Each structure stands twice: as C-alpha cells, then as structure tokens.
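Priority: medium. Attachment 1 of 2:
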C-alpha cells in the first residue's frame, strides 16, 4: 500500500510508472543485456510459434506478479542483433486467445530489459486488398474483447492512470518495419484497422459485416489487450499482420473458412516475415 497519494501533476507520467513498477516487483536497474546492444522482442502468434532463424543463446523462465507468461523467454541473436522471442500461444500452440496471460507476457519482456516489441499475428482479411498471404502493418485498433485482464492499473491499491491510446501503435516502430520490409524486397500494406475479437471461434458473416461497417479492415483475436498493456509500460509496440484467409462471408470464404488452406498460406507468408525481422535487426 502506498504511504501517501501520488498526484500526476507532481510526479509526472514517467515517475508514476516507475514507482508502480518498483512496488509490484520490477527493478528498472536490472538489465540482461549490454547497454550498447539494441534489444527488441518478437511475440509470435499462430504460424510463428518458433523462430528457426534465431541463434538461441539461452532460455529463461520468467516469474511476474501476474503469473507465468505463455512460455520461457528465448534470448538469441538474429542477423547479429540480440532479440527475445516469446510464443504468444505457448510453444505447443496450446493457449487459446482469451486465455493468454497478456499481462505476464508484457511484464516479463519489460523486466528483461526489452526496448521495443514487434507482434506477429495472423488475421482474416475484410478489405478486398487484404488478401491471403498479404503482410500488413496496421495503424488502428477496434476492441471487441471482453473479460480479459486488460490493465496493470487494477486492484485495491493500484494507481489510476489513463494512457493516451489515440494512436495504438508506435509510429516510429511502424515506419521502421515498413522501411525495412521494402529494403528486404517484401511488399507490405501500410495501415489497416485491426478488429480484436474474443475467439476462439471465428466470426459469423453477419459479424464481419458489422466489423466492416465499423471500419475494420482485418480481424484477429490477440491484438488487445496486448497493445494497450505495452503502452502502459511505455514499451514501443507495433505489429505485422499476416492474412491467413478472407474473413467469413468474403471472397473464397463466402461459404465458410477452409482450414486446410491456411497452413500453406501461413508457411509461405512467415518466410517473408522472417526476412523482414532479419532486416529489422540491421541498422
């Protein structure tokens, strides 16, 4: 319990978050990397439960105030750059979207000294050009999830803090991903509205119609609260969406989603994602 109230105007945003981190067990001074090295994290979703191009150096089982993350943090080097990899759904892909411990995942990465996060996630395409196999760097989010632990600032003695979420993805990170993807010769779509649904079932055609009316371009199940939690801990966060299929009631999914086609699409697209990630490591 705090001994005295903390007022935003007196301490400022950064002081408040640091104070909160210390109270709940994170030591900002603890580093797992050399100060001269650039460390970023990759959170892999469906289709990227492991990063074969990563030169693994060690695995660390993290403990957080919010329970256990989806799996051990894998530290290694990618194209000469030190990175941390975490499989969002577990390394056996056993954790359904609404059961992912998003708070533990983001907390563990922050505690590991990570400077930024790149999320990789498969999505369904709603907008016509968001076709299977397309790589997208989204710029906005619509949140339709419910019942998920969506904030660190919760509980009897928690600080009340409102984050600015006007632009949910870090623009500097977005631009870097886009630039490096083009340098790597990979075509990417700049900007899309990501609709986060509860899952684990896919959506009905009528639900996709509603999402389209709301302005959604792609649909997935894991973008929230992950992005908001990263913002709460001041971790620059951006995403690479891989379109696995057209959303329900669209194009080839007009009569239903054909699961047998998804694996091949994801396998081919993830090769391109790995190429982008490797280029992202280069200055």
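Attachment 2 of 2:
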């Amino acid at each position: 319990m705090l001994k005295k109230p903390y007022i935003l105007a007196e301490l400022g945003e950064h002081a408040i978050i640091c104070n909160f981190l210390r109270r709940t067990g994170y030591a900002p001074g603890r580093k797992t990397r050399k100060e001269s090295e650039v460390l970023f994290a990759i959170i892999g979703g469906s289709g990227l439960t492991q990063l074969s191009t990563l030169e693994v150096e060690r695995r660390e089982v993290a403990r957080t105030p919010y329970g256990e993350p989806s799996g051990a943090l894998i530290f290694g080097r990618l194209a000469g750059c030190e990175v941390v990899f975490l499989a969002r759904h577990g390394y056996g892909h056993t954790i359904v979207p609404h059961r992912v411990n998003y708070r533990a995942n983001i907390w563990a990465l922050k505690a590991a000294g990570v400077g930024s996060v790149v999320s990789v996630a498969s999505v369904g395409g709603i907008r016509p050009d968001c076709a299977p196999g397309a790589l997208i760097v989204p710029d906005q989010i619509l949140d339709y999830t419910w019942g998920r632990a969506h904030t660190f600032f919760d509980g009897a003695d928690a600080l009340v803090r409102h984050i600015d979420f006007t632009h949910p993805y870090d623009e500097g990170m977005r631009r870097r991903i886009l630039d490096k993807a083009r340098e790597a010769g990979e075509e990417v779509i700049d900007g899309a509205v990501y609709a986060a649904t509860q899952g684990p079932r896919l959506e009905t055609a009528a639900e996709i119609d509603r999402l389209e009316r709301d302005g959604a371009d792609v649909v997935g199940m894991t973008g929230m609260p992950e992005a908001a939690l990263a913002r709460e801990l001041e971790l620059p966060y951006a995403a690479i969406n891989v379109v696995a299929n057209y959303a329900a009631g669209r194009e080839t999914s007009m009569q239903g989603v054909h699961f047998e086609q998804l694996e091949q699409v994801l396998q081919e697209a993830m090769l391109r994602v790995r190429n982008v990630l490797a280029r992202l490591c280069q200055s």
